[in-house]
Amino acid sequence: MQQFITILTIAAILLVADAYIITGVRTGLKKWKFTAKRAFTWWYWGISIFLILGLFASIYIKFGIGFKGAILLIFFVMLGAKILFLPFLVVDDVRRLLLWKARKHNRPEPEFPASQPAPDTIPRSEFLMKAGLLAGALPMASLGYGIINGAYEYRVKHRTLYLPNLPKAFDGIKLGQLSDIHSGSFYNKKAVTGGVEMLLKEKPDFIFFTGDLVNNISSEMRDYQDIFAKVKAPLGVYSSLGNHDYGDYHSWPTLAAKQKNLDDLKATHKNMGWDLILNDNRRLKVDGEEIGILGVENWGSMSRFPKYGRIDLAERNTQDLPVKLLLSHDPSHWRAQVLDHKDIDVMFAGHTHGMQFGIQTKHFQWSPIQYVYKEWAGLYREGNQQLYVNTGFGFLGYPGRVGILPEITIFTLKAAADPALKGKTA
Fold first, then answer.
1. DSSP class of 364
2. Whether residue 142 is found in the same domain as residue 161
3. What confidence score (pLDDT) does residue 120 get?
C-alpha cells in the first residue's frame, strides 16, 4: 500500500510539472501556432501519460529487458529535457512578477536581457522560451549522437583482480571479457570486426563471454559467426548463456522449434571454438597448478527472467581448487545466491548494458539502470568475494550508446591482497 501511494504521489508531481510546462510553452510561444492546436495537446499529454504508465507498469508486469530498457531510457531522457527547460519557465515567471509589481506601485520597470513585454499583457519572453527549448533539446541531440557515434565506439578497460589464493603460475595472467553481443542488432560488420581486433590486440591468455549472443534467434549469428570465431586465446574461450539466448521472448510455433533454436545456438558456440559451460565447470591448468572456471545458465532474481542456473551442479568436484571464477550473465544472481557460496572468488556478468545511457568516469558513474540493479557496471566487492559487470559489446532496443560505451575488459590476475583494502577488515 505504501509503495502504491508513493507511485501515485510521483505520478501526480510529474503531471503537475507537465501542466506547468505546456502552459508555459503555449504562452511564451504564441507565434508558433501549432502549440495552440488540439493535436499538440494530444501529442504532448499522450507521450507524457504513456511514459508514466509504462514506467510504473514495468514494476508489476513481466516485460522483457529490451522493452523495459527502452521505456526507462525514453522516460529519463524526456525527464532530463523537462528539468533543463523548467528553470527558464521559472525565471520568466519571476520576471513577469517583478514587472507586475513595478507597474502596480508605479515604479520604473526593471530591465531584463529578454525582450520587454507590452505594458498591458506581460507575455512570457520568447527569448527565454526558445533558450529553454534549446536546453531541453540537448538530451534528444545526445541520443542522435549516440546512434551515429556511440554504438560501435568500443573501449578497452583494464582492471587488476587481486586474488590472495591465486596459484603463482597464474600471477600476471591476462583474462579478457566480452558480454552481450546481441548480434541481431548489428548493422556494421566492419565496425564489429574492429572491436574484435581490439580485443585480440590485447593478447589475453583466456577469454570469458558472459551471455546474450543473440536477441532471440540463433540465425542472427549467420553473418557474424566468422567474425567472432576469430576470438581465440591460448588457454581457451569460455562462454555462458544469457536470458536472450533461450528464445523466451520469441513466439515459436512449437516447443520443438524453440528447442531446436537453442540447440543451434549451442552449436554456434562450438563452431566458433568457444567452450560453453552450462551448470558445469572446467579446470584451467598452468605449470601443474589449477584454478576453476564455473559456468551457470541464466539466473535472474527478477521474476520475469529465467532461473535455469544451478550453482550446486557447477561446483561439483571443485573442493580442491584454490580459486573459482564464475560466469553468470545476470548480476542480480550475485547478491541473491552467489554470495552464499564463499568459495566463489569472482563472478563475471553482463546483462545491464549500463542501459546504454548515463555517465561513466574513473571516479563516478550514473545511469537510470541503477534504480533497477544495485550492481550494474564495474567492479564490486562484498567481503572476500568480487563481482564484475561488463556493460556489453553490443546494444539492444535503442541502436546506440550515450556515455556508457561498448566495453571490452582486460583483467590482470594478481596473487596478492588488494592494496586498496590494506588495513581494512573484510
1. -
2. no
3. 43
Do residues 105 and 217 share a domain? no
- Amino acid identity for residue 204 in this structure: P
Which of 40-49, 67-76, 259-268 comes out lowest in average pLDDT? 67-76
Answer yes or no: is 424 within a domain: no
> Cβ contacts of residue 114 below 8 Å, gap of 6+?
92, 95, 125, 126, 127, 128
What is the grid cell recorded at 154? 568500443
Residues 58-95 have pLDDT tens digits of 655 655 545 655 666 677 677 777 777 777 777 777 77
Q: Do 105 and 200 lie in a common domain?
A: no
Q: Phi and psi at residue 128, in whole multiples of 5°?
A: -65, -40
**Cα 16 to Cα 24: distance, rounded to the nearest angstrom:** 12
Instruction: Report the distance separating Cα 150 and Cα 136, nearest Å.
Output: 21
Per the document, the length of the chain is 426
pLDDT tens, position by position, 225-254? 999 999 999 999 999 999 999 999 888 999
Classify residue 42 by burial, with Cβ atoms within 10 Å: 0-12, 13-18, 19+: exposed
- Quote the CA–CA distance of 18 and 47 in Å, as a whole number: 11
Q: Are strands 174-178 and 206-210 parallel, antiparallel or unpaired?
A: parallel
CB-CB neighbours of 13 under 10 Å:
10
Q: Name the residue among 99, 103, 101, 106 with its Cα closest to residue 124.
A: 99
Angle 343-345-349 from CA coordinates, rounded to 5°: 125
Q: Which residue has the cell 505546456?
A: 22
Separation of alpha carbons 326 and 323, rounded Å: 10
